[in-house]
Design brief:
By secondary structure, this protein is mostly helical. Helix content is about 70%, strand content about 0%. This is dUTPase.
């Protein structure tokens, strides 16, 4: 279980990913000669959450007999894409990169969401901080671990740097 039971090693992986994301963000901003735009980043997060939700459609689409089952690997990849933008937003808030995990906020979100993935996704619309805590809840709700996220994130981070190098 993530959140309030998260170990120091698990949170250290989150911090390491946040540092890696900051390096990627700086490279992208430099390459595209622009500054960080919170509103555009939030839109990117919503877009990735939508793609993640689409990959998860087999778990909630009750009206179609032809709906394909959830491909857990693709779902994880889309979840990690959302993590990229959530960490970018989290890094640019008042809390910064190397902050402590906020168990109170995690429990608050958990209570508000009433264990609903839809409610957790909707919370990203009006939140301006604690994006990582929200992503931890979404990750847990989908049955993934920090180790799953960390491993997939490292692979995708390399892909993103290759894309940047090749003019993506």
């Amino acid at each position: 279980m993530l959140g309030v039971n998260m170990t120091g090693m698990e949170w250290n992986k989150v911090i390491e990913m946040k540092k890696m994301q900051n390096v990627l963000d700086e490279a992208i901003l430099k390459e595209h000669q622009c500054e960080f735009d919170k509103n555009k980043c939030k839109l990117a997060l919503f877009d990735e959450l939508g793609e993640m939700n689409h990959e998860n459609k087999g778990s909630w689409c009750w009206w179609k007999y032809t709906q394909k089952p959830v491909d857990r690997e693709k779902l994880l990849e889309e979840l990690v894409d959302a993590w990229h933008f959530a960490m970018s937003l989290d890094n640019h808030t008042r809390k910064g990169i190397e902050r402590d995990f906020d168990p109170v906020m995690y429990e608050h979100f958990e209570h508000l969401a009433c264990n609903s993935l839809a409610d957790l996704m909707a919370m990203t619309v009006y939140m301006d901080f604690d994006y990582v805590e929200l992503m931890l809840l979404i990750t847990e709700k989908l049955g993934f671990t920090i180790d799953d996220i960390y491993e997939c994130y490292q692979k995708k981070n390399k892909v993103n740097f290759e894309r940047l190098k090749n003019g993506y």
